[in-house]
Fold this sequence. Notes:
Layout: H1 4-7, H2 9-40, H3 46-82, H4 86-132, H5 134-140
Helix pairs in contact: 2-3, 3-4
Amino acid sequence: MTLTTPALLFPAISLLLLAYTNRFLVLAQLIRKLADEERDRHQSGTARQIVLLRRRISLTKRMQVAGVLSFLLCTLSMFALFLSLELLGMLLFGVSLVTLSISLIYSLWEVTISTNALNVQLQDIEDQRKGSSPVAAEEASP
């Protein structure tokens, strides 16, 4: 294995960490918006959204940690290869690939939860529309 093999992962890991940071910022924005809405009025889906947001934050933290570890291990792999420590470099690179895979699995899990959170919001919108439509008002009256 040469020094260029782990170096090929550098751009990919950097872009991945940028994408994770963007997901985190979006989560923070959603939480702030939800908090503002909760202050204004109580919404029926707020409790479900909070649970999903907590899970997403936890997963985002885990995928960022795994991504950073992957980047660090990849760097150490390159350093070991630079020092002609071939076996250590290969081992560190292998562990780097494993942690990158773990990071991607967390990312996939978070995307799944994110989709569920969007479905909760869509359900709330549908419920509000049903409750405010003239047909629903007629059906509700005795």
